[in-house]
Amino acid sequence: MDVKLNTIRLVWVLSLAGEILNNAVSFAVFCVLDFVDFILCFVYKVFDFWIESQWKPCYCSSAKQHIIEGDNILVSEECESKIVCLTSTNLQVEDISDTLYSRPSIVAQLSKFIINDLNKTKKTTVTSTFTIDSTVVEVLRGNVVPRWSDCDCKICNSWTSSRKDTLFVKVEGPKDKAREDVLFIHGFISSSVFWTETLFPNFSNTVKSTYRLLAVDILGFGRSPKPTDSLYTLREHVEMIEKSVLEAFQVKSFHIVAHSLGCILALAIAVKHPGSIKSLTLLAPPYFPVPKGEPATQYIMRRIAPRRVWPVMAFGASVACWYEHISRTICLVICKNHRLWEFITKFITRSR
């Protein structure tokens, strides 16, 4: 009994020591990454100006009080941003997550905490201000073009010439005699191939003769269009699925099978068309209960990307989510030169 109790105590002590070490190392590493990303911001601005002859905005740039041009106004207040009025046909009145342009560094968070604490001590009222991110405005106005740091191959730039206004949909099963429809929605960094090359070949002949299977490439993924004037909001995704699947194939009632990000879209469709859904199958749905009083988007951001060096997945997600310019550097090395890496991989593996 004493040996078992000592073992439990040892495990607890080691676990606590590991957590403390992880927190200490993480704090040091991410302070360095904050500084590196800050420097890279200026480095890329210089390169952008040198190569493209103009300063390019970024999501970490200082927010201005407001931008108004004609009927276009984009404002944010207390972690909630809204496009008040837009001439774009794709976006009219839409909520935008503040995580798109509000990713404060550790130093910024500490400063904000100290300032809020001082304001509470002085019992002063902090007035809310409207802020704007110029990169979002550039996207909404359709001013986004391929950059010098982007790959120039045909596949990577297919979005620049895309004029399609419907999604790619892979359809299998009887066209006229199908008794039921099943809509498959893939997850993040995926496509309809997730379903068509795994599930579809393994369905029985009875299923294939009974159900019409519709696997969609959601907006911006696979062979679907990647519009430059889109922020890929939930509403846009749902409307494109409605137009490309429900209306185009005259789907009245249907089953939905969704994975990861697709689960969010599936739930939105189910809420919008409650009488049309026969069943809803969600695989690995992302769900994070938010404590009362917490800003939902920022809380979930911290859960997904907790700024920890361990585990490795958390570190990778943190770098990708919090550091725009470090991520751009990684893309510059890997994505822009993907043809070189493909050649090297094929050469080493002898094209296996």
TrEMBL record:
Coiled coil: none annotated. InterPro entries: AB_hydrolase_1, AB_hydrolase_fold. Residues 182-288 form the AB hydrolase-1 domain. Pfam families: Abhydrolase_1. PANTHER family: HYDROLASE, LYSOPHOSPHOLIPASE BODYGUARD 3-RELATED. This is AB hydrolase-1 domain-containing protein. It comes from Gossypium gossypioides.
